[in-house]
Design a protein that fits this description.
single chain; about 750 residues; alpha+beta; six-stranded mixed β-sheet; 18 helices; 29 strands; globular
C-alpha cells in the first residue's frame, strides 16, 4: 500500500549520519587507525576508533560460562587489536550528509599486519593459528545427542550408506537491510533507539549495559521492518555505535546498512559438513545412524550450541530410529559470525537425512516414497518419544499428528504418480525429469515465555500490547483474531501494538516459529481475564449475575436478550468507578499475563518437487512444487499458506543457487546481488500448499509453529529431484546448492569414470 514507515523513512531535526569503516582483511593485527584526514573534511562532525571510545571496551556479545567455559569469546563493538573477518567494524565517521560521509569513510586509514586466514572448519582445526589466542584450538563448542546403540544398529543392517554431505553458507537477504536511529529524549529522560531488529529487548539490554545506563532509561522501538528471518534477532555493534554517537554529540544519529555491508557483516548461517553412516534392514527400515559434523560458525560462536543441537535433535526427523549417535562441533573461522537464519540447524539436518533416504532407497531398489512410508512414525504411536532431549532440557515428545497421511497428501498435491509416469515415458535425451520428496519433524515455539497486556478504552477500542515485534508475519491480524474471539470484541475494534520496550516490560523476541505458540496463548488468556472483568461490570449495569453475561461483537448482554446490550466502551468507562472491580483489586478493563509453555510443539511437514534437468548445460528447471504442513490449528489459513510459500522460496534458493563464497584469503566473493543469486519470479512454478491440522497438546490454542517450516525441506527435495533425473548417469549430489556449474562438473566426472 506504500503506507509503511521503515527505518530509513524516519528522521529528526539536526540528524547526523554514521558510517562504519570495516576491515579489509580476514585476519590481521590492527597496528593503528588514523582518522585525522576524515575529521578535516567538510561536514564531518566526528571520526573515532576504539581508542577514542572507552564505551567500546564492553563487547556487544560475549560468552564465558556453560558451553563456552574455557573458550571465552567477546564480539567487539570496534576491533581494537585484531580483526577476525572481512567487514568487522574498526572505526566510525559521523557527518551531516550521506554523500560527505561516504567520502570521509575513504579517508580513514588503518595499518594492518595480516595474519593467516582460516577459511574452512577443516583448515581451522588443522592450523596452528588460533583465532582466539587463549583457546587451545579453533573448536568452539560441541553438541551431542543419541539413543540406543548406533554401532549395533549398523552391524545388524543389510545395507549401510556412508556419505560426506555439505550444506552451503547462506545469507538471509532480507529486503530491508539493518538500520538504527538514536536520539536523547530530554523530556522523558531517555535514550530512544529505533532499530530494524527482531528483538528490541535484547538491543535495549545490550545498549544499557554498554552505556552503563539503567534499562529503564533506554527505550528501543521498531518501525515497520522489511524482513528479519533470524539474523536480525541479536544486537549488533552498530546499535551501540549509533547510541554512543547520539549521546556524545547531543544530536540524532542514523546508520543504514548498504547491501554490500549486509553481506559482509550481517550474520550468516547453514554451513555444515557431515560425515554420516546409515544402515537399513532388508525391508527398508532404518537400523541405525552414526554421524558427526563440523559447523562453520564464523569468527565468534555467538549462537553457542543452539544451532548445532537443532541439527542433532532434528536429523532423525519423522522416522522411527532406535539407534542414533551424532556429534556436532562448531568451529571458528575468519568469516562473518553466524546468526540463526530461518529454521536454524534444521534444514541442514533434513538435507542430510533426506539425501540418505534416497540413497538407501536406490541401494535397496525401492521407490523413494516407499522407503519413507516404511519408516514414518505412525499415528497410533503419538505422542511419539524418540528418546532425545531437546535443548530446553525436556525429553522430545512429538505432538499428535498423522505423518503418513500428510506425506501422502504431499505426493497427491504434486501429482507424484503422474510425474513418475511422465518420467518413465520420456526418452533419455538431454532433458530429463526428476522427482524429489523430503519430510521433517520440527520443534517450534521455544519459550521461556511471552506476555500480553489488553486494555479496553472508553472509545470501545481494544488495545493489545505485546513484546514480540513483527517483520511482516501478520501479527496485527492473527493476534487480533485471538483477542477478538476470546474477549468477544469486534475484530475491527482490536489494535495490536508491539515493538516498544516501554509498553511491555519483557519479551523474548520474534524467531524460532514462536510468536503464535507463545504470544497467542498469552493474548488468549489475557483476553479471557479482561472478559471476566467486563462481565462483572456488565452484571452490575444489567442487574444480572456475571455468569449470565454474554459478550459478542463488542457488546455485553444477558443470555437470551441480545437486544438489551451495553457496548464494551461503556463498560470500560464504568469499570473505573465500579464497585464490582473491588473483588479484582484494581479498576478498569485491563490485564497483563504471561504464558510459559512446558516445552516446544512439534510439527510435521513434507515438500515435493519435479524438475527438468538439461544434462548438456547442468541447468535444473523447477516444474512443480508442493508443500504440506501441520500447523496444529491455522488461526488465519491465508497467512499460514503465505508463510509456507515464502519459506519454500528461500529453500528453493538454497537448493538451486544461493551460496556465500569466500576465497582462500578469506575475502568475500559473493558480496552483492550481482554475485549472490536469489530466486526470481520467473524461476518459480506455482507453489501449492495444503494444511493438515492436528492440535498441539502443549498450548491451549492447539497451535504449532509455521514461520520457519517452509524453509526446512526444500533444498533436500530439490537435491533429491535433480539426482533422480541423472542417477543412472552415475551422479550423486552431495552438496547444495546444485548450481548449473556444479551439476555440469558432476556429469562430466561421471562420464569420465564411465569411459
Amino acid at each position: 500500500m506504500g503506507d509503511g514507515r521503515y527505518l530509513d523513512d524516519l528522521t529528526r531535526e539536526g540528524l547526523l549520519h554514521l558510517g562504519v569503516v570495516r576491515s579489509l582483511h580476514a585476519h590481521a593485527r590492527v597496528l593503528g587507525v588514523d582518522t585525522s584526514a576524515a575529521r578535516a573534511m567538510p561536514g564531518v562532525v566526528a571520526a573515532w576508533s576504539a581508542a577514542d571510545l572507552p564505551e567500546t571496551a564492553r563487547p556487544i556479545l560475549a560468552g564465558a560460562e556453560g558451553a563456552h567455559k574455557g573458550r571465552p569469546f567477546a564480539v567487539p563493538i570496534l576491533a581494537r587489536d585484531v580483526v577476525r573477518y572481512v567487514g568487522e567494524p574498526v572505526a566510525v565517521v559521523v557527518a551531516d550528509d550521506g554523500y560527505r560521509l561516504a567520502d570521509a569513510l575513504e579517508r580513514v586509514t588503518v595499518d594492518y599486519e595480516p595474519l593467516a586466514a582460516l577459511v574452512t572448519p577443516e583448515a581451522a582445526l588443522a592450523s596452528a593459528t588460533r583465532l582466539h589466542v587463549d583457546w587451545p584450538d579453533n573448536a568452539a563448542v560441541v553438541a551431542r545427542g543419541g539413543l540406543g546403540d548406533a554401532e549395533r544398529g549398523l552391524a545388524e543392517a543389510t545395507v549401510v550408506v556412508s556419505e560426506r554431505l555439505r550444506h552451503a553458507r547462506l545469507a538471509a537477504v532480507f529486503i530491508e537491510a539493518r538500520g538504527v536511529l538514536a536520539y536523547r529524549d530530554r523530556d522523558a529522560g531517555r535514550l530512544v533507539l529505533w532499530s530494524s531488529t527482531q528483538n528490541p529487548y535484547s538491543v535495549r539490554d545490550a545498549v544499557a549495559r554498554i552505556l552503563a545506563l539503567p534499562a529503564e532509561e533506554v527505550q528501543v522501538r521498531t518501525p515497520d521492518v522489511g524482513g528479519g528471518f533470524g539474523p536480525k534477532g541479536a544486537p549488533y555493534p552498530e546499535e551501540a555505535l549509533v547510541a554512543i554517537a547520539a549521546l556524545r554529540l547531543g544530536r540524532p544519529v542514523k546508520w543504514v546498512e548498504s547491501r554490500r555491508e549486509d553481506f559482509a557483516s550481517s550474520g550468516h548461517d547453514r554451513e555444515q559438513n557431515h560425515e554420516v553412516r546409515i544402515g537399513f534392514r532388508r525391508d527398508g527400515t532404518i537400523a541405525g545412524i552414526d554421524a558427526s559434523f563440523l559447523a562453520d560458525v564464523g569468527a565468534y560462536p555467538a549462537q553457542g550450541t543452539g544451532l548445532t543441537l537443532n541439527t542433532v535433535n532434528h536429523l532423525p526427523g519423522p522416522y522411527r530410529v532406535a539407534n542414533y549417535r551424532n556429534t556436532g562441533t562448531s568451529v571458528v573461522t575468519t568469516k562473518t559470525l553466524n546468526m540463526a537464519y530461518r529454521a536454524a540447524g534444521r534444514p541442514e539436518a533434513v538435507f542430510v537425512m533426506e539425501r540418505l533416504m534416497d540413497l538407501g532407497a536406490r541401494r535397496l531398489g525401492l521407490d523413494p516414497a516407499e522407503i519413507r512410508r516404511r519408516n514414518l512414525v505412525r499415528r497410533e504411536d503419538m505422542p511419539y518419544r524418540p528418546g532425545l532431549t531437546y535443548k530446553d532440557g525436556v525429553a522430545v515428545a512429538y505432538d499428535p499428528g498423522d505423518f503418513p497421511a500428510a506425506f501422502e497428501r504431499a505426493l497427491s498435491l504434486l501429482g507424484y504418480d503422474e510425474w513418475r509416469r511422465r518420467q518413465a515415458a520420456q526418452p533419455r535425451g538431454a532433458r530429463r525429469i526428476g522427482v524429489g520428496v523430503a519430510c521433517y519433524a520440527q520443534g517450534t515455539g521455544l519459550g521461556p515465555f511471552e506476555g500480553a497486556t489488553i486494555r479496553v478504552d472508553p472509545s470501545g477500542k481494544v488495545y493489545v500490547l505485546i513484546g514480540v515485534a513483527a517483520q511482516g508475519q501478520g501479527h496485527a491480524t492473527t493476534l487480533a483474531q485471538v483477542c477478538a474471539q476470546e474477549l468477544g470484541a469486534a475484530f475491527a475494534d482490536v489494535v495490536v501494538t508491539a515493538g516498544d520496550t516501554t509498553l511491555m516490560p519483557y519479551g523474548m523476541g520474534t524467531g524460532g516459529s514462536r510468536v503464535m505458540v507463545n504470544a497467542g496463548p498469552a493474548v488468549a488468556q489475557t483476553a479471557r481475564e479482561v472478559r471476566a472483568r467486563a462481565a462483572r461490570v456488565a452484571a452490575e449495569l444489567l442487574e444480572c449475575a456475571p455468569d449470565d453475561v454474554r459478550i459478542a461483537d463488542s457488546r455485553a448482554f444477558v443470555a437470551g436478550f441480545p437486544d438489551r446490550a451495553v457496548p464494551l466502551g461503556r463498560l470500560a468507562q464504568a469499570a473505573v468507578r465500579s464497585r464490582a472491580m473491588k473483588a479484582t483489586g484494581e479498576p478498569g478493563l485491563h490485564a497483563c499475563t504471561f504464558f510459559y509453555p512446558d516445552t516446544v510443539t512439534w510439527a510435521f511437514g513434507a515438500q515435493a518437487a519435479a524438475v527438468e534437468v538439461d544434462v548438456e548445460t547442468g541447468q535444473a528447471r523447477l516444474l512443480a512444487y508442493a508443500v504440506v504442513h501441520d500447523p496444529g490449528r491455522a488461526i488465519h489459513p491465508v497467512i499460514v499458506r503465505a508463510q509456507l510459500q515464502g519459506g519454500a522460496v528461500q529453500a528453493i534458493g538454497a537448493g538451486l543457487m544461493e551460496e556465500i563464497v569466500y576465497d582462500g584469503a578469506g575475502q568475500l566473493l559473493s558480496g552483492s546481488l550481482m554475485d549472490y543469486a536469489i530466486p526470481r519470479a520467473a524461476d518459480l512454478p506455482a507453489i501449492d500448499v495444503a494444511l493438515t491440522e492436528h492440535r498441539s497438546m502443549i498450548n491451549p490454542l492447539g497451535v504449532k509453529g509455521v514461520g520457519e517450516s517452509g524453509a526446512i525441506p526444500g533444498a533436500a527435495a530439490i537435491a533429491n529431484a535433480i539426482e533422480d533425473a541423472v542417477a543412472d548417469l552415475g551422479v550423486t549430489v552431495r552438496e547444495v546448492p546444485v548450481t548449473p556449474a556444479r551439476l555440469h562438473a558432476l556429469l562430466a566426472s561421471a562420464r569420465a569414470r564411465a569411459r
